[in-house]
């Protein structure tokens, strides 16, 4: 077992050689050193102490050693070298060791790095101050090299485990975020119509039923618009199905752009038929909204030579507003709005008809 005699010889030889910082850190310039899992930074103003520690660690091939003799540069050197352990002398000119310990702890890059303070004497008050400042360990210099290596390995292992744990947490959070985004995208695709991007019929049914139940609880008005592209079969026959698909996309865009409230839901009901759920909307508000949509689609100016409504593509809209009664299904609102749509078609298309439930 190595003892104080070893340190004595090392210090004596170091005092004779008086190496500079470049010589002390030369070991870190080799490619192999960069792969060492244990990185030690010694901050001490006495170069012979730096050389003694370097020699004590030289026989450990997996320990990389860095030395800083200038207290004011210590934090910057620690940021650059990213040690797994800092050996910090307590008594230094200009900046004392405890101040440096606090600076390490206040710096995001060095906050969690284990710090072993080195003191010239065993003193309870100094130990207490060191631990209060954020030190992890306390050694009287110079300790037996075996003990020093053991403590360096112990604290390095703890620090590396901490880094691995944090990296695992980051990877887990990233994985969870990616999973959430994937699930949201799958949900969007499940609920969306592939051609128009609006909500599909399945989601429309779910949403209407949910809003119907809410309106039933609150005894509030719920409006529904049923929208049908006029003479769409004739349009497909004249211009082709590709052009017909583009028309449906443009109509869908108008519906989407006119939804000013998050609760308003435009959906593709089926084929060339669309629907819009408008919670908490009065009959007057529903009619105004429907007229706005009808005029917006007409103003697109899409030529339709097969139409009998002026040579341009138009829509007919049936609107209904109900306050749900107990035991009444949401399909009742669809029936009433659909009756209004039928009436708009029968009366010549390109118009809005407000429908009411029959007694």
Description:
The chain has 359 residues and is an alpha/beta fold. It has two domains: 38-166, Rossmann fold, CATH 3.40.50; 201-355, Alpha-Beta Plaits. The chain is built from twelve helices and ten strands. It has helices spanning 4-17, 21-24, 47-58, 74-81, 97-106, 124-133, 145-191, 201-218, 232-239, 241-257, 283-298, 331-346; strands at residues 38-43, 63-68, 85-89, 115-119, 137-140, 222-229, 265-270, 273-279, 315-322, 352-355. The protein has a five-stranded parallel beta sheet with strand order 2-1-3-4-5, with helices on both faces. A five-stranded mixed beta sheet has the order 7-8-6-9-10, with helices on both faces. α1 (4-17) packs across α3. The protein is rod-shaped and about 105 Å long. Mean pLDDT is 89; it is low at 14-36.
Biggest beta-sheet profile: 5 strands, parallel
* Uncertain segments: 14-36
Name the average pLDDT. Answer: 89
Beta percentage is 15-25%
Global shape: rod-shaped
Output the CATH class name of the largest domain: Alpha Beta
Helix percentage: 40-55%
- What series of H and E elements makes up the topology? HHEHEHEHEHEHHEHHEEHEHE
Based on the coordinates given, report the CATH architecture of the largest domain: 2-Layer Sandwich
| Strand line-up in the sheet with most strands | 2-1-3-4-5
CATH topology of the largest domain: Alpha-Beta Plaits
The rounded distance between the terminal residues' Cα atoms is 104 Å
* Count of alpha/pi helices: 12
Number of domains: 2
Radius of gyration: 39 Å
Q: Structural class, from helix and strand content?
A: alpha/beta
Secondary structure tally: strands: 10
CATH superfamily of the largest domain: Reverse transcriptase/Diguanylate cyclase domain
């Amino acid at each position: 077992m190595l003892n104080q005699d070893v340190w004595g010889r090392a210090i004596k030889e170091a005092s004779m050689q008086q190496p500079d910082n470049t010589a002390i850190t030369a070991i870190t310039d080799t490619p192999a050193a960069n792969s060492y899992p244990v990185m030690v930074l010694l901050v001490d103003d006495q170069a012979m102490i730096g050389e003694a520690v370097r020699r004590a660690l030289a026989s450990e091939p997996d320990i990389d050693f860095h030395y800083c003799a200038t207290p004011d540069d210590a934090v910057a050197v620690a940021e650059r070298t990213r040690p797994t352990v800092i050996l910090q002398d307590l008594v230094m000119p200009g900046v004392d060791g405890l101040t440096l310990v606090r600076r390490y702890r206040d710096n995001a890059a060095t906050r969690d790095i284990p710090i072993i303070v080195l003191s010239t004497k065993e003193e309870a008050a100094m130990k207490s101050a060191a631990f209060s400042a954020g030190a992890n360990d306390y050694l009287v210099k110079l300790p037996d090299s075996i003990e020093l290596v053991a403590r360096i390995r112990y604290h390095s292992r703890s620090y590396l485990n901490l880094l691995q744990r944090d990296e695992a947490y980051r990877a887990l959070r990233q994985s969870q975020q990616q999973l959430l985004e994937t699930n949201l995208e799958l949900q969007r695709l499940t609920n969306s119509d592939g051609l128009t991007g609006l909500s599909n019929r399945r989601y429309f049914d779910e949403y209407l039923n949910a809003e119907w139940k809410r309106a039933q609880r609150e005894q509030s008005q719920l409006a529904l618009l049923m929208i049908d592209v006029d003479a769409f079969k004739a349009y497909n026959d004249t211009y082709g199905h590709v052009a017909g698909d583009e028309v449906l996309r443009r109509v869908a865009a108008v519906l989407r752009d006119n939804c000013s409230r998050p609760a308003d839901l435009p959906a593709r009901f089926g084929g060339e038929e669309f629907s819009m759920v408008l919670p908490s909307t009065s009959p007057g508000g529903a009619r105004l909204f429907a007229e706005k949509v009808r005029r917006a689609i007409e103003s697109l100016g899409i030529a339709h030579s097969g139409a009998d409504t002026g040579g341009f593509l138009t829509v007919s809209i049936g609107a209904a507003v109900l306050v749900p009664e107990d035991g009444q299904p949401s399909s009742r609102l669809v029936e009433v709005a659909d009756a209004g749509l039928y009436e708009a078609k029968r009366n010549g298309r390109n118009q809005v008809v407000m429908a009411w439930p029959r007694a």
